[in-house]
Amino acid sequence: MPILSRRSFVLSASGLAALALAGCASGGAAPTSGRGGDGFPVTITHKLGTTTIEAEPTRVATVSAANQDVAIALGVVPVVMPFFDYGGDAEGVLPWVREALAGMPMPQVVGRSLEPIAFEAIAAARPDLILATYSGLTQDEYDTLSRIAPVVAYPDAPYSTSWQEQTRIAGRALGRSTRAEELVVATQSRLAAATSEYPQLKGATFAYTGGMDGGQLGIFRPADVRVRLLEDLGMTSAPFVEQNAPGGDAVYYTVSAELVPRLQSDLLVGFFGTPDLDAAFLADPAVREMPAVKAGGYAPIVGADRVAASSSPSVLSIPWVLDAYLPVLAEAATRSRR
């Protein structure tokens, strides 16, 4: 299967959204053609409650990461979205969002992604739906937002909703289930093409870290979305990760420096906002003793925008980052598995 370029993917998959959005102002939904005939009202049960959406939403607000990506890909430009401190430009807009909305009005940017939710600004935008399928909403935050508009929260656990689930849930909420499934299939095809192009990734074991955390190594478990994205590429989370995880369903934990050299995997994948942070991590004596690092299997993802795209994957961010992400992973896998 040939690799699709990011541009060809945008034209074939999330480009569906661009076609639907043509001529559509940022304050409402796209034209009705191609929506798949979903009926309303729609009732969605999630971790924080049950939400009924009485009519097709036309003014959508998004909170946290990835939710604005899915709405845009489905053909609905949010009326408001967060300012992204990490990975966004000077106006707080993520590069794949700006690319998808090129030539169209931008949503209003309110609050900041790393600060408490901007309830008043969201209320002032008069949304008729708030998307938070990938978020860490607390019950109190959900209850407050629900006084503004119906809220669709995460189905199981905070920050654990896969890109496939995000897309399908948002498709139901927006009355665009057919388009949502088209986007999922197109993205899965893009990932399948990648595994064909980089066969050295298939079956490679990995551990995913955000770096040293108070002298300990931070590790993400298989339920985390960034780990699942690598599994979508045919890779496998190293057995060490679950064998040494604490009880509970938290997707992140730390291991002591003494245990770090025992972490057996083909790859160590890490993310760092700047090259200096990456270099400082690799200089740590415990890190240098890890089998994957000693074998050349270190695969850092460097740069806030790339980190944001791969850490909160969506049908917009995956094609944006994949062409930069894959060679790093493949080169490390080749070195480590010689």
Structure, briefly:
The chain is an alpha/beta fold and 338 residues long. It contains 15 helices and 13 strands.
Mind explaining what this structure looks like?
- This protein has 338 residues and is α/β, with parallel strands linked by helices.
- It has two domains: 6-191, Rossmann fold, CATH 3.40.50; 198-336, Nitrogenase molybdenum iron protein domain (Rossmann fold, 3-Layer(aba) Sandwich), CATH 3.40.50.1980.
- 39% of the residues lie in helices and 16% in strands.
- It contains 15 helices and 13 strands.
- The protein has helices at residues 6-12, 15-21, 67-73, 95-100, 119-124, 139-146, 163-174, 177-197, 225-232, 239-243, 275-282, 285-288, 291-294, 304-311, 317-336; strands at 42-46, 49-53, 60-62, 80-82, 108-110, 129-131, 151-152, 205-213, 216-220, 236-237, 252-255, 267-272, 298-302.
- Strands 8, 9, 10, 11, 12 and 13 form a six-stranded mixed beta sheet that branches.
- Strand 4, helix 4 (95-100) and strand 5 form a beta-alpha-beta unit.
- 47% of the residues are buried.
- Mean pLDDT is 88; it is low at 1-36.
Write the layout of secondary structure elements.
Elements: H1 6-12, H2 15-21, E1 42-46, E2 49-53, E3 60-62, H3 67-73, E4 80-82, H4 95-100, E5 108-110, H5 119-124, E6 129-131, H6 139-146, E7 151-152, H7 163-174, H8 177-197, E8 205-213, E9 216-220, H9 225-232, E10 236-237, H10 239-243, E11 252-255, E12 267-272, H11 275-282, H12 285-288, H13 291-294, E13 298-302, H14 304-311, H15 317-336
Parallel strand pairs: 3-6, 4-5, 6-7, 8-10, 8-12, 12-13
Antiparallel strand pairs: 1-2, 8-9, 9-11
